[in-house]
Amino acid sequence: EVQLVESGGGLVQPGGSLRLSCAASGFTFSTYWMHWVRQAPGKGLVWVSRINSDGRRTSYADSVKGRFTISRDNAKNTLYLQMNSLRAEDTAEYYCAGVVAVPSGLDVWGQGTTVTVSS
Amino acid sequence: QSALTQPPSVSGSPGQSVTISCTGTSSDVGGYNLVSWYQQPPGTAPKLMIYEVSNRPSGVPDRFSGSKSGNTASLTISGLQAEDEADYYCSAYTSITTWVFGGGTKLTVL
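Predict the joint structure of the above. Result:
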């Protein structure tokens, strides 16, 4: 079964850091582009970042550029999102998602992990 | 990276058709055939319904169709069913190699 499982969310103070992980199974993780998408409580989806299959190409939304870093370990079938200098507006459900069985579009999603930035 | 523009809500009765629009610019929706649509029932992760403007992934009913004209993409759901009630989001690739989502549209089946 194709599956993505996020972990690492939690409560963090403003200015703090958190690293999210996304464990992949059921498909050849190293072959596919991966993304992070977030959703603030009661709000819409917001694209955060993406990384290519070998980890050498990345891109970020302006709102997180310079603070967040996407990376992957293909040997461990795991995607990461290092989040630094966190702000209250980063509070959201964070989803990892992949472009797996289609040429484009995010066809595989995790269940999400909750990040709360508050003092 | 402004969000794409979607109507906040649409509604229809069972069996009817509804269309959700998604308006961007020539730097995103209008510039590439890389528009996707997602369905998100409450409390669940999004599900891909349409990719590359008009293609359906395996398992998505053919009641769902997509199109694009200029800077506006559209998702049409025909033969509306109760289980179609959800939030729908469009997404597009942009000229600065990022992706952008629309604000979302709540579909109510009357």
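The CA atoms of residues 10 and 111 of chain A lie 15 Å apart.
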